[in-house]
């Protein structure tokens, strides 16, 4: 085998061939329809987890491997009007994947970006694991299949154009969706759509564009849905006009997962203006009415007795005690010097901008559902089982959604809507109230993390981390992937959560013998894989202890990271933020810089922040809120391999930075007597304007790998860790409880009965 042949072989952790020539299909159809034919690359196998399993295979590799066998079922269609259609089997929840997908097609087909129509595919069980959105995997997994299908279409169009123009294929050029021959005659792809179609499915070859010829990929593009979004024309679930589907809400229990005992005034509420139905369901009492305002009035009027919930009597203190009791031991103290600490991370809300919602129309022999779902196949299967219907009798439409951060992996709203529609025999448009999202929705689990680093002189001998968490619910599709691929994964017989943990946690530093273990306890909470899942907590704990190690060794926090990093890409992003952020510059007392690094999804990010912890800043008066320290500057550098849309990547990193600031400083739920005190975004403190940094600089590194890495969640962990490290340096005390302001309850908790709080009436009297 010569050097060129060796270079063309699949590399460890890759998900397809490095050659540019691929097989594809032209499918039998009235107009041109094409698909890719891909086979999984060989994956390395091992019997037990290694010290850093992610160097062998990571979560993104596993998701890509799971999706690859059905990639040929995803098709590109050329229409007679000159547009190109593609039904994306992923969920657009604001991350911009419809735009990046359109860019891939536009690139390979040489058509204008605004002629590519990307829609979201309905639930298609035949796609198996190819219709699961999460783990920053969409662009990674679809990058090659979409391009191959588009390249097949381009080749087929050129063949048809050669006949129409009387020229050889090699004499033709394609620009802006128009094929031009050597004599100047031209023909649009719309006119070729039927000519290029196949009467029977044919296997063909296609060659992808080399990167040096890219004119779309890698260029900043505005979102293809931007105009519709800002003009109100974009359709979300609650915007859909499904015949007969009336507004519906649920009166929910005062404690987490409480059950209905009895309803004392159902008939009275049923007689209220606009109310059409009042019915008991498994999660509460559902009300259907002419308007959502009437639903809210009815929910507030209901008198319900409730049974105990799954977290009855629990509080922050009791759950923390459970976690500490369940912590795996770190082992005997080392014989050499060491640094060690325990960190606590409180519950955090997984509430997206768009509240949980779904539309359902259930009949005796069929059901139709509309919702923003990231695991629609699992939802379809669960709904069919719940209704006792054949899978083919259930149609699940995936709608665009206003945010997710992992929340829309769960389809509880769709299941509720189905249950209500079946019971009343009418279509329903179900919407959760914001208080429902906060108190009964999905949360990021409360956790502790114990870390120990042993060292001698300037050498780190070992790194141990024991992360203990309230159980994370992975029943939305990730677990099924792990089960299906168990024999191919180097994780022995680990459980779902431990597998997820091991496949997502990297160790970028040369820290000798290192081990990271997860232990989960307490399944009484509604949890989910919130954005970046375990990584923000795990990385924050690690990076804080690295700062303490630097102090013990007498080293600069930036320099110690730089000296111990293993990977050139990680070194490059760290050096870039240190340079751009002027690491080490003189700053006033009470202010400081912090720096941190995170690698995941075959990508790397580093963040430098500056924070102001001076009394005048911390004590700023905020009505019913906590001001606390303020991050005044963020510099974030990201290497995502090959960047498809730099503008989209920049937006994702800005969101990651805001998430990280919130997780470090203000964003948490307070648990008391089996329920969360927060009941709206008035008193759940995501990063607000008063804590948004005046300076924010996102640096996108030059392409390094020739293929995309994951990016949607990448910057959260390093951002949170950098803020925490900056706080420790500014105050002289390393923080160990997060968010830092969790101990201050700045608002008067709203009542739990009725579950929907009274709407504020003083909105004109103040502004944030």
From TrEMBL:
Q: What is this protein called?
A: Molybdopterin cofactor-binding domain-containing protein
Residues annotated as domain Aldehyde oxidase/xanthine dehydrogenase a/b hammerhead: 231-310
Q: Which InterPro entries match?
A: Ald_Oxase/Xan_DH_a/b, AldOxase/xan_DH_MoCoBD1, AldOxase/xan_DH_MoCoBD2, AldOxase/xan_DH_Mopterin-bd_sf, N-heterocyclic_Hydroxylase, OxRdtase_Mopterin-bd_su_IorB, TAT_signal
Q: Where is this region: Disordered?
A: 749-768
One Pfam family recorded for the sequence: MoCoBD_1
Q: Which SUPFAM superfamilies match?
A: Molybdenum cofactor-binding domain
Coiled-coil positions: none
């Amino acid at each position: 085998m010569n050097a060129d042949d060796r270079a063309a072989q699949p590399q460890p952790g890759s998900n397809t061939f490095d050659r540019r020539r691929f097989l594809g299909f032209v499918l039998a159809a009235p107009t041109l329809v094409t698909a890719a034919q891909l086979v999984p690359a060989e994956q390395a196998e091992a019997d037990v987890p290694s010290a850093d399993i992610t160097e062998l295979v990571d979560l993104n590799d596993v998701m890509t491997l799971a999706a690859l066998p059905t990639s040929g079922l995803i098709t590109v269609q050329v229409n007679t009007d000159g547009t190109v259609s593609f039904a994306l089997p992923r969920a657009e929840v604001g991350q911009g994947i419809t735009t990046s997908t359109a860019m891939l097609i536009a690139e390979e087909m040489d058509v204008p970006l605004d002629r590519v129509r990307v829609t979201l595919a309905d639930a298609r069980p035949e796609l198996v694991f190819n219709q699961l959105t999460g783990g920053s995997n969409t662009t990674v997994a679809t990058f090659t299949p979409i391009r191959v299908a588009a390249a097949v279409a381009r080749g087929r169009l050129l063949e048809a154009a050669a006949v129409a123009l009387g020229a050889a294929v090699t004499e033709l050029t394609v620009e802006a969706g128009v094929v031009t021959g050597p004599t100047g005659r031209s023909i649009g792809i719309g006119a070729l759509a039927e000519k290029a179609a196949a009467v029977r499915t044919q296997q063909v070859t296609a060659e992808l564009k080399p990167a040096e010829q890219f004119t779309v990929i890698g260029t900043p593009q505005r979102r293809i849905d931007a105009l519709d979004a800002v003009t109100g024309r974009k359709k979300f679930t609650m915007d859909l006009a499904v015949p007969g589907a009336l507004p519906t809400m649920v009166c929910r229990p005062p404690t987490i997962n409480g059950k209905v005992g009895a309803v004392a005034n159902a008939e009275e509420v049923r007689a209220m203006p606009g109310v059409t139905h009042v019915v008991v369901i498994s999660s509460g009492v559902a009300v259907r009415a002419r308007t959502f305002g009437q639903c809210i009035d009815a929910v507030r009027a209901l008198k319900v007795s409730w049974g105990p919930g799954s977290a009855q009597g629990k509080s922050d203190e009791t759950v923390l005690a459970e976690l500490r009791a369940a912590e795996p031991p770190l082992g005997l103290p080392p014989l050499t010097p060491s640094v060690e600490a325990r960190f606590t991370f409180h519950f955090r809300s997984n509430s997206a901008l768009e509240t949980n919602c779904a539309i359902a129309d259930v009949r005796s022999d069929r059901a139709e559902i509309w919702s923003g779902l990231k695991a629609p196949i699992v939802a379809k299967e669960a709904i069919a089982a719940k209704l006792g219907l054949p899978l083919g009798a259930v149609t699940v439409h995936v709608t665009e959604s206003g945010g997710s951060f992992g929340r829309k992996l769960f389809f509880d709203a769709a299941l509720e809507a189905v249950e209500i529609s079946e019971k009343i025999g009418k279509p329903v448009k179900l919407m959760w109230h914001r208080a429902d999202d906060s108190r009964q929705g999905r949360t990021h689990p409360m956790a502790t993390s114990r870390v120990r680093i042993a060292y001698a002189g300037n050498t780190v001998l070992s790194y141990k981390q024991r992360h203990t968490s309230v159980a994370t619910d992975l029943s939305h599709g990730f677990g099924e992937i792990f089960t299906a691929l168990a024999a191919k994964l180097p994780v022995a017989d680990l459980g779902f959560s431990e597998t997820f943990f091991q496949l997502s946690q990297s160790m970028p530093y040369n820290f000798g013998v290192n081990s990271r273990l997860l232990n989960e306890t307490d399944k009484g909470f509604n949890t989910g894989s919130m954005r970046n899942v375990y990584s923000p907590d795990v990385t924050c704990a690690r990076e804080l202890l690295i700062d303490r190690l630097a102090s013990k060794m007498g080293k600069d926090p930036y320099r110690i990271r730089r000296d111990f990093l293993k990977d050139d890409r990680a070194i490059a992003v760290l050096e870039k933020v240190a340079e751009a952020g002027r690491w080490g510059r003189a700053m006033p007392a009470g202010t400081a810089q912090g720096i941190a690094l995170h690698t995941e999804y075959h990508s790397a990010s580093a963040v430098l922040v500056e924070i102001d912890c001076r009394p005048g800043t911390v004590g700023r008066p905020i009505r019913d809120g906590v001001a606390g320290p303020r991050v005044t500057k963020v510099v974030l550098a990201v290497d995502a391999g090959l960047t498809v849309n730099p503008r989209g990547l920049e937006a994702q990193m800005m969101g990651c930075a805001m998430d990280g600031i919130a997780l470090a400083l203000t964003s948490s739920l307070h648990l008391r007597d089996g329920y969360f005190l927060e009941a709206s975004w008035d008193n759940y403190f995501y990063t607000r304007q008063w804590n948004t940094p005046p300076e924010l600089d996102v640096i996108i590194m030059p392409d390094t790998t020739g293929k995309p890495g994951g990016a949607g969640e990448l910057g959260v962990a390093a951002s949170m860790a950098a803020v925490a490290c900056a706080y420790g340096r500014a105050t002289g005390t390393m923080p160990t409880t997060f968010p830092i302001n969790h101990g201050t309850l700045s608002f008067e908790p709203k009542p739990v009965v009725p579950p929907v709080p009274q709407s504020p009436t003083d909105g004109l009297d103040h502004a944030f």
